Amino acid sequence: MDEFNRYAEDGCHYMTPEELDAFMNKAMPGIFDRDSVENKILDVRYGTLETQLLDIYYPGSDSNKDAVYPVIFYIHGGAWMLGNRYSGSINSIFDATNHGYVVVAVEYRLYPEVKFPEFIFDIKTAVRWARAHAAEYRFDPDRFGMIGDSAGAYNALMTAFTANRPEYEGAEYGWADFSSALNVVCGQYGTSDLSIDKRDYYRLSGVKRLQREPADAPGLYDQIWCSDNPGILRLCSPISHVTKSIPPVLLMHGKMDGSVPYQNSTALAEKIEKVCGKDRIRLLLFENLNHSDPFFNSADNAALVIDYFDRYLK
User: Which residues contact 194 (CB under 8 A, 6 or more apart)?
Assistant: First the structure.
């Protein structure tokens, strides 16, 4: 038997503790040095709560103070429990500031402080705030995009797919008269269907899972979504909210992902193509990339995202 494989009782392959440590040390994106950015406005409050904050990064060549810019919102990952708006994974899109975009990094509340759909409320509120303050901050309110990684991808897709639906808006946090709609969205290695049994995918693919929860431990979804019922979880999933009105979608996923099976993205892409047509979706799969692979924070990856966003925001 390969010394790096161990077979769990359910037939899946799991990383050893040593492998998991090595993976996390490689994959964790670190902290973005926001203080090194010249043209920025930090710690802007967007809602009624003190923790509802965002950072605004302007193009480095922002010499024309009358210029108005398209906006890309960045939504960090972290399993809905970790992370912040200056996670190093912002590098997946920060280079857009060199291509005529403003990047807005959004802080949202995490579990256990809140559960679903409160973190979606925060992100929707940030989008509405940006429209309400477009003139003050030189945003073009008709050109809004969003990108998220991992849990942030789920959040970004849910934000895009449920735009202006009252039950997902969180209007009590402010700017209820403004739209939360987006022109384009990108999800990187995110969950599109909370109801799937990941073990089935791992058995078929042989991809090693990052970790195994104790059998008697309450599940993550049961805690954050208040249910482990597959029917309810599916209703809380982006794949259940695909309609003809959703914006164009870019999905990016590594086929060696040991946390979120890449089939999340293939299934969502198929659903979007069926409902909206193939022009509404672009799916990029990467053969040898794992979850949060450093490639996703590279200039090469940013170029792929910016090229797609340019089609709809320029």
Answer: 221, 225, 233, 234, 236, 237
User: What b/e string do you get for 289-303 counting C-beta neighbours within 10 Å, with b at 16 or more?
Assistant: bbbbbbebbeeebbe
Instruction: Determine, yes or no, domain membership for 1.
Output: no
Q: Number of structural domains, the chain?
A: 1
Reported as a pLDDT band with limits 50, 70 and 90, residue 143 is: very high
Q: Which two tokens stand for residue 314?
A: 């320029």
- What per-residue confidence (pLDDT) applies to 18? 53
Q: Strand 184-188 vs strand 249-254: parallel, antiparallel, or unpaired?
A: parallel
Main-chain dihedrals φ then ψ at residue 69, nearest 5 degrees: -120, 150
Residue 293: CA count within 13 A, CB half-sphere: 20
Q: State the pTM of this model.
A: 0.87
Q: Which is nearest to 74 in space by CA: 138, 148, 142?
A: 148
Measured distance CA(302)–CA(124) in Å, rounded: 24
Q: Which helix (H) or strand (E) holds 146?
A: strand 139-149
Q: Which residues pair with 55 in a beta bridge?
A: 105
- CA atoms of 67 and 69, how far apart (whole Å): 7
Radius of gyration of the CA atoms of the chain, in A: 19
Q: What percent of the chain has pLDDT over 90?
A: 65
What residues does 41 pair with on adjacent strands?
56
CATH, residue 66? 3.40.50.1820
Q: What does the DSSP 8-state code read for residue 43?
A: E
Question: Residue 285 falls within a domain, yes or no?
Answer: yes
From CA 145, how far away is CA 256, in angstroms rounded?
Answer: 28
